[in-house]
Amino acid sequence: xxxNSFNILLKxxxxxxxxxxxxxxxxxxxxxxFNNMFREGLEKIKQPQTQIDVVSLKxxxxxxxxxxxxxxxxLETLHLIKEAENNGYDAAVIxxxxxxxxxxxxxxxxxxxxxxxxxxxxHLASTMGYKFSVIVTEDLCIPQxxxxxxxxxxxxxxxSFKSLGMGVHDLHKDExxxxxxxxxxxxxxxxxxxxxxxxxxCTIQFGFYKELQDxxxxxxxxxxxxxxxxxxxxxxxxxxxxxxxxxxxxFQSPIVSEIKEWKLEEQxxxxxxxx
Length: 275
What we know:
Rossmann fold, four-stranded parallel β-sheet, 8 strands, about 45% helix
């Protein structure tokens, strides 16, 4: 990918020597009940030069615990990401720990970084200890999340998965109950399974990491903070050095002339996103 050095320098000097970044957080569900909480939390941890927007989908399931629900949201999520690229965003986060549509998203964008919670969390955890454990909501999450870890090349870093036996929307009904279960499961992962790092394997486990970390005395990685800070990092790498996912082979973009010839934009009511 050729870097336009003049445009990068222009962007730098227009902002007083600081490169601004626009990041889109997508809650890939058909409800906006978490949007304000996520936005307020991200505003507290973002870099001063980062602009953050949080959106959810116009329709869809309230959670993604089943693969069918996940399949329903991928198309709209991909089109949101393509629109974000057209609107000048530097990075996007697909905010579900299943990382739905992540590699598909990397295929359709050319100028924007894309990440998701599991990708960011497991890579970060792999640098902080020899083994990590992931605390998930329910057992049914484990096979797909393990598949992702294998895809990311980190199978040998996994100490264990631990299930809370709770649905996504139960996590904050009784937060003291949730934190005590988290402590029990994470302590077991450390003492019996050899974990040196704990990952909270759901974005709705927000707000728990600090108390857990103080109790366990090991890094506890939050599934909102990690992918957001990783997105900021990816945006900086893109803007300063032109580093972004390769378009050589696996992430090669679809052929726009085919999309136009087949009238896919008209068929799927997405006119204008493929420029």
